[in-house]
């Protein structure tokens, strides 16, 4: 009889090692290697047998394919992110920080589906049935015909699901609490998470029910467990939000049945999550239009235009190496914009500390924010407030040119709807926009933006503090040099 081959699996990252060692070579964590049988069981291939493989029929690439059947949840923001609703037979993974509202969102979605006549089963591995009922009463959805269960055994869950009619939606909260008898390890380990997720995904494919798995996140913001779970599911959704803000953002990072650049915006209230159909009003609700260093950026999140305020603070640095702090944007792109301003526009930002933040806690990854960031930096350095009724968008190249961006017409339409009469945008995008507002200004070089800000006004003089050296800000002429 052949000797069973053993391997050691890291419970943090899932890396395999032929021998035990105190520290994992892949992730650097200590005491995370656990012995597993590589010949069979979870993580191993099937046992050797003399059975010959069968011929798999081959299909042509062309042919008619029906659209994936969907089940709309009735929550517009959730349906926007998923691509129109849950696809039958699909598996979704929802991650987010603790207390961000994952369970609240899925409980609302399950109640909305159950009230529309769909059979929904909510399985909680972290809370008792009484705790889920208390949350449902607080949210006002306790009367919804949702079937509840508090169980962590995968075998018991699958037996319960197969005993009754096929459900339309099964929610498992969370996948880190599940355990299966096929793996000899504690719940939450890499082996158990992989085995439990594989069993639930197999049930979704075979039965046609939609399975939603809730996943914990690590301190780095990644879903805990092996990355192979994200590869196995059909969609991965992240529920984001800052503790000091009352809004939440649902973002898709993987979606086999829809786009991955859509976002859903919710507002956390005492009775649950409320949809925000116009997030621009939410992000601009506490805007101070008379302060220097604030520029309104007209961005795009998928097919939705979003207006958000970008705030910059440029201050003399007492340190030998000035600080560069960024919240909600790419720090490398900020360094590039600062370099372009210094090299091609004569704006000296090197000896100053630069702080940049996207108001409201929204994270922006669009290069079209370059122009708004440059406008906010120049405004903060010169002390000149930007026009309150103007929006900015455009990509800045290393040569100082302002490159065109897509969906310029939609950005301008959203700005006009919120009362913005002017816009600064790339000249090439303005030429392609047929319904551009007469107040829009098209620029081709970043130096034109700096010159227009310098010509718009001057900063009032400030009284110096006696017996202290005065740190003078650059004049308007120096900024536009």
UniProtKB/TrEMBL annotation:
Residues 353-481 are annotated as: Lon-protease-like. CDD domains: RadA_SMS_N (cd01121). ATP binds at residues 96-103. A motif (RadA KNRFG motif) lies at residues 254-258. Signal peptide: none annotated. The keyword ATP-binding applies. InterPro entries: AAA+_ATPase (IPR003593), DNA_repair_RadA (IPR004504), P-loop_NTPase (IPR027417), RecA_ATP-bd (IPR020588), Ribosomal_Su5_D2-typ_SF (IPR020568), Ribsml_uS5_D2-typ_fold_subgr (IPR014721), Rubredoxin_2 (IPR041166). Residues 67-217 form the RecA family profile domain. It holds the Pfam family AAA_25. Belongs to the RecA family. RadA subfamily. Plays a role in repairing double-strand DNA breaks, probably involving stabilizing or processing branched DNA or blocked replication forks. DNA-dependent ATPase involved in processing of recombination intermediates, plays a role in repairing DNA breaks. Stimulates the branch migration of RecA-mediated strand transfer reactions, allowing the 3' invading strand to extend heteroduplex DNA faster. Binds ssDNA in the presence of ADP but not other nucleotides, has ATPase activity that is stimulated by ssDNA and various branched DNA structures, but inhibited by SSB. Does not have RecA's homology-searching function. This is DNA repair protein RadA. It comes from Kaistia dalseonensis.
């Amino acid at each position: 009889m052949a000797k069973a081959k053993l391997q050691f699996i890291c419970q943090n990252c899932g890396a395999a090692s032929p021998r035990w060692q105190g520290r994992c070579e892949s992730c650097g964590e200590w005491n995370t290697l656990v012995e597993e049988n590589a010949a069979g069981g979870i993580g191993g291939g099937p046992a050797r047998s003399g059975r010959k493989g069968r011929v798999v029929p081959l299909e042509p690439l062309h042919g008619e394919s029906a659209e994936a059947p969907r089940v709309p949840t009735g929550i517009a923001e959730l349906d926007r992110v998923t691509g129109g609703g849950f696809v039958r037979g699909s598996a979704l993974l929802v991650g987010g920080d603790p207390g961000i509202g994952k369970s609240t969102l899925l409980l609302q979605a399950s109640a909305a589906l159950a009230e529309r006549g769909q059979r929904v089963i909510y399985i909680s591995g972290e809370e008792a049935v009484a705790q889920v009922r208390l949350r449902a009463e607080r949210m006002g959805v306790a009367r919804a015909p949702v079937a509840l269960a508090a169980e962590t055994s995968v075998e018991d869950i699958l037996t319960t699901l197969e005993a009754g009619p096929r459900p339309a939606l099964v929610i498992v909260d969370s996948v880190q609490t599940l355990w299966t008898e096929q793996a000899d390890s504690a719940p939450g380990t890499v082996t158990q998470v992989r085995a439990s997720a594989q069993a639930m995904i197999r049930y979704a494919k075979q039965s046609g029910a939609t399975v939603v798995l809730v996943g914990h996140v690590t301190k780095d913001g990644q879903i805990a467990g092996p990355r192979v779970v994200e590869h196995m599911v059909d969609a991965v959704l992240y529920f984001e939000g800052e503790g000091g803000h009352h809004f939440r953002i649902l973002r898709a990072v993987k979606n086999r049945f829809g786009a991955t650049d859509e976002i859903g915006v919710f507002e956390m209230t005492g009775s649950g999550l409320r949809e925000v159909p116009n997030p621009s009003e939410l992000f601009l609700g506490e805007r101070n239009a008379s302060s220097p260093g604030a520029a309104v950026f007209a961005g795009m999140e998928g097919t939705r235009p979003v207006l958000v305020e970008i705030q910059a603070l440029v201050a003399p640095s007492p340190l030998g190496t000035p600080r560069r702090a960024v919240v909600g944007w790419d720090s490398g792109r900020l360094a590039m914009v600062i370099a372009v301003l210094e090299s091609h526009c004569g704006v000296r930002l090197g000896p100053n500390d630069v702080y940049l933040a996207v108001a409201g806690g929204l994270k922006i990854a669009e290069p079209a924010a370059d122009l708004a960031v440059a406008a906010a930096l120049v405004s903060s350095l010169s002390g000149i407030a930007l026009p309150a009724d103007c929006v900015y968008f455009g990509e800045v190249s290393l040569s100082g040119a302002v490159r065109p961006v897509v969906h310029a017409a939609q950005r301008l339409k959203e700005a006009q709807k919120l009362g913005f009469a002017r816009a600064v945008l790339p000249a090439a995008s303005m030429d392609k926009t047929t319904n551009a507002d007469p107040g829009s200004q098209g620029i081709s070089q970043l130096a034109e933006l700096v010159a227009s800000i310098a010509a718009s006004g001057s900063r009032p003089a400030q009284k110096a503090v006696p017996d202290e050296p005065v740190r003078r800000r650059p004049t308007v002429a120096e900024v536009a040099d």
